[in-house]
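Service request form, structural biology core

Requester: graduate student, group of Dr. S.
Request type: structure prediction, single chain
Budget code: on file
Notes: please return the result as structure tokens.

Sequence provided:
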Amino acid sequence: MELSKVTALMKATALELAILTGHLVLYPSGIAAERLSPAPTATGPDATIAPGARPVVLLHGFVDNRSVFVLLRRALARHGRDCVESLNYSPLTCDLRGAAELLGRRVEEIRARTGHAEVDIVGHSLGGLVARYYVQRLGGDTRVRTLVMLGTPHSGTTVAARLADAHPLVRQMRPGSEVLRELAGPAPGCRTRFVSFWSDLDQVMVPVETARLDHPDLLVHNVRVSGIGHLALPVHPTVAAGVLGALDAGGPVARGAHEGEPGAASVA
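Core staff response, request fulfilled:
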């Protein structure tokens, strides 16, 4: 391995350890469900909610909670996203489909409370798969404008495959699992825009390209991130800027787009 690659990997690993330490400190603060955002106040009979201020739902990964998004939600708030909510799903959840149904109920509640017809979702790791299942398999594409996924194992990760008697959710992240086969199936007419961030030094996504989403029926924008690992994706300022850009983008994305084609980009 080239010296430059070794150096980059060492820096990324050191950053991952620092982030893990900080997250362990914050983790207890995210165990309880957060207070819901209040409904907006109308100022007149014709008052409406600005279309650029769609609610954002944040969905954590396996055995994690909403505390992983502390920095990202601050960045969203600074850029005008005043309705940002996190959903905790129980670590006792044994089926990704059940978590997707819970997400669907939360989305309906947010729509009713805020008056918005659509929401945006940002999912980290397994959270991205949960949200993708809701969009593709449970009709969520009529509710979700943009789904941003950070380090999500779209084709499965062999890290999960190495764990022989793992948690049921881990087994669903293995290559070839029933859930992943469902998601790989046809999804004609899916309306949601998908943006998938994948890192070239992600040691949880093996191979790293599994966090790229390639599906002929979906509106996809894959974004390569260089020099950081899996845990850094929800907290790194460069990724946060990319997430903001993805949520604010209004133009169409080419179906099945990937790096080197229209609708795709790289972030260093």
